[in-house]
Amino acid sequence: MPGIESLTEVLVDELRDLYDAEKRLTKAIPRMAKKAANRTLRAALNNHLKETNRQVRRLEQAFRQLGETPRGKACAGMRGIVEEGDEHTGEEFETDALRDAVIIGSAMRVEHYEMAAYMGAIEHARILGQSGVRSLLQETLAEEQAADKKLQAIGQQVNPAAAEAGMEEEDGGGFGRSRKSGRKTGRRRAAKKR
Ligand code: FE
Ligand code: ZN
Ligand code: FE
Predict the structure, then answer these.
(1) Distance from Cα 106 to the centre of ligand 1, integer Å
(2) What pTM does this model have?
(3) Ligand 1: centre distance to CA 138 (Å)
(4) Which ligand is located closest to the Cα atom of residue 146?
(5) How many CB atoms are located within 10 Å of the residue 162 CB?
(6) pLDDT tens digit string along 94-116?
(7) 189 C-alpha to ligand 3 centroid (Å)
């Protein structure tokens, strides 16, 4: 017996993959938010967590419209992206801004992976004439795109602050950068003293 016999089955599989990915994110986003020091970043992540919970519900509606029971199928891609995110954001950072810069990068990888997956599923729903499923998925895609744009904008605030880390070690060199951007551990500064 062949495995997948129709584009509808392909679409259902894509929804299962997304269902698992979104559910995984309802657990991963709070971990990211907890690590974020920048208030705007933390608020954006918490807001996207709320959206993600609604996205899970939307996928359940899409399954029902296709006459299927909502069921996830392990998304290895998102598992890997989340694993990497936990690993990268869990490093030791000299300043909060440096960690925030890494959190933004990790979160943007998540959004882009989701966007690609939704775009593929939307196109399949369109070809199949599943306009209800298509518009549910489009609603979510718009949220992912907005989340990505928001992260990009926050990055423009955070990255210049992150760039200041380590600059004050050029003391006497005339760079004169302040370090109001983040908390210092003092470890590296102490090591630099002659
Ligand atoms: Fe999502
Ligand atoms: Zn996947
Ligand atoms: Fe998202």
Answers:
(1) 14
(2) 0.86
(3) 12
(4) 3
(5) 23
(6) 999 999 999 999 999 999 999 99
(7) 38
Rounded to an integer, what distance in angstroms lies between the CA atom of residue 130 and that of residue 136? 10
- What SS3 state is found at 100? helix
Token digits of residue 31: 């971990």
| Spacing, Cα 156 to ligand 1 middle (Å) | 23
Among candidate residues 21, 22, 55, 52, the one with its CA nearest the CA of residue 137: 55
CATH number where 137 lies: 1.20.1260.10
∠ Cα 26 58 105 (to 5°)? 40
Kindly report, residue by residue over 44-69, the tens digit of the pLDDT.
999 999 999 999 999 999 999 999 99
The structure tokens listed for 162 are 């992150």
The single residue listed with the structure tokens 């997304």 is 18
Look at residue 191 and tell me if it is in a domain. no
Q: How far is the CA of 66 from the centre of ligand 3 (A)?
A: 23
Asked if residue 40 is part of any domain, the answer here is: yes
Distance CA 73, CA 93 (A): 35
Domain span at residue 104 reads 7-163
Distance 51 CA to ligand 1 centre (A): 7
User: Is 58 a domain residue?
Assistant: yes
